[in-house]
Amino acid sequence: FGGIVKEPPLHIVHIAVEMAPIAKVGGLGDVVTSLSRAVQDLNHNVDIILPKYDCLNLSNIKDFECQKNYLWAGTDIKVWHGKVEGLSVYFLEPQNGFFQVGCVYGRGNDAERFGFFCHAALEFLLQNGFHPDIIHCHDWSSAPVAWIFKDNYAHYGLSKARLVFTIHNLEFGAHFIGKAMQYADKATTVSPTYSREIAGNPVIAPHLHKFHGIINGIDPDIWDPYNDKFIPVSYSSENVVEGKKAAKEALQQKLGLKRADLPLVGIITRLTHQKGIHLIKHAIWRTLERGGQVVLLGSAPDPRIQNDFVNLKNELHSSHNDRARLCLAYDEPLSHLIYAGADFILVPSIFEPCGLTQLTAMRYGSIPVVRKTGGLFDSVFDVDHDKDRAQAQGLETNGFGFDGTDVGGVDYALNRAITTWFDSRDWFNSLCKRVMEQDWSWNRPALDYLELYHAACKLQ
Ligand code: ADP
Question: How far does the centroid of ligand 1 lie from the alpha carbon of residue 268, in Å?
Fold first, then answer.
């Protein structure tokens, strides 16, 4: 990367509809923030443009101020500016009420609202004399930036910019994604294995020459067991056993579980088909059978699935009150305590573009138990089966994996994990230390993005 270092800093503008921690629904929000911070740390200039939702978590925005208004398509748009996790963020507040609806997604007219936002964001850049090198848009929700830019702005005022589009999840809005793939100068998705899994999809297949899989990282400052106000004892790999013991006790106490030294399996997830619901349910029962404890933190956008889990919760809380807790909500502080207090984090996804929970688990010294798909395949190396594959990446093994979508698979991984905990505690503890010392931050992937940005800039 010697050549890259000498090049002048780039100016990158992200146009996105999620951003952690102020407007986060899933991994997309984490990635916008953490990729931007990593690229900024490498001395490039980054701005983010976001809708000004009425439900923004304002306590995490510094120096928040209303700057100016502009007019687009007959609508007055207020522009706010603030700093989020050290990043410069512009918030667009159209006076048509589009983002005064109490949520990010879930209104019948999401496509119309975000389409408006995409166009308004490009207009904001033009009217304010921005000349970014890269405009980076994400998923179906800001996909329209790609074609609106090429059709209306690339030749008028924003001619220096190149357009990068990232697919965080092809399941959502494939139609939009296909069109953005066509118009983007470069496109990425969030892990090499997922890029191969979707390469044959008709919206991707014609564009493989400009399509790259770059694994996501996590932000080591946002997820840091040495400096985390939601856990009782700070720890690093040096005192991982002590730190996790304290966190487990705090978690057990907070949730009213039996305070005992038992293997604890944590699950932190959106409860949707993608995440392997039948495997999650099965794993809960299997863990209890094996004498472990289970904590699930998750919420279901689909009311039928939510209902189903409410029933399961009632059943478990009466049959296994001291060993199982289902917390059916979105709760960021609790997620930190689970990452720290669990021995294992289970991620049995049917498909998983990258997955952040297994990476965060490892940062907190929890051992991932995953289905081998997408980014889970690229980041988790089975202690019994993947030594060579890990070594090829310069890594040691770090978890338990399984194939297939039937319950036998998850049993296979979970049984080995729990047996290791019971029968080989010292070795298990050394595994916790080992996973904490692996680097799943943006250090490496940010350089890959910079290489891609530079390659995009060189395109005619
Ligand atoms: P996806 O984007 O498909 O939801 P990822 O694994 O990429 O999955 O990202 C999920 C992110 O959301 C992680 O940071 C995880 O900790 C967080 N998360 C998921 N469910 C919850 C919840 N119920 N409460 C708190 N955080 C959650």
Answer: 6
Domain covering 2-218+443-458 assigned CATH 3.30.450.20 in the classification = no
Amino acid at 43: N
ipTM over 0.95: yes
Give the architecture (CATH level 2) of 237-437. Answer: 3-Layer(aba) Sandwich (3.40)
Ligand 1, residues 168, 170, 270, 373: which to mutate, most atoms within 8 A of Cβ?
270
Give residue 7 CA to ligand 1 midpoint distance, Å. 36
DSSP state for residue 149 in the 8-state scheme: I
> How do the domains of the chain map onto residue ranges?
2-218+443-458, 237-437
Q: In this structure, which amino acid lies at residue 429?
A: N
Q: Which atom of ligand 1 lies at the shortest distance from residue 216's CA? A: 7
Q: What are the residues facing 102 on neighbouring strands? A: none
- The protein residue with its alpha carbon nearest to ligand 1, atom 19, reads 269
Residue 3 pLDDT grade (very low, low, confident, very high; cuts 50, 70, 90):
low
**Whole-angstrom Cα distance, residue 370 to residue 377?**
8
Q: How many whole angstroms from 198 Cα to the centroid of ligand 1?
A: 22
Residues within a 6 A CB radius of ligand 1: 26-27, 30, 268-270, 297-299, 330-332, 335, 354-357, 360
Per-residue pLDDT at 383 exceeds 70? yes
Confidence tier at 172 by pLDDT (50, 70, 90): confident
Give which of 443, 460, 455, 454 is closest to 42, Cα–Cα.
Answer: 443
Each residue's pLDDT tens digit, 63-77? 999 999 999 999 999
Residue 2 has pLDDT above 60, yes or no: no
Find the angle CA(58)-CA(61)-CA(67) to the nearest 5 degrees: 100
Cα of 297 from ligand 1 centre, angstroms: 9
**How many angstroms separate the CA atoms of 166 and 204, rounded?**
12
- The predicted model scores a pTM of 0.95
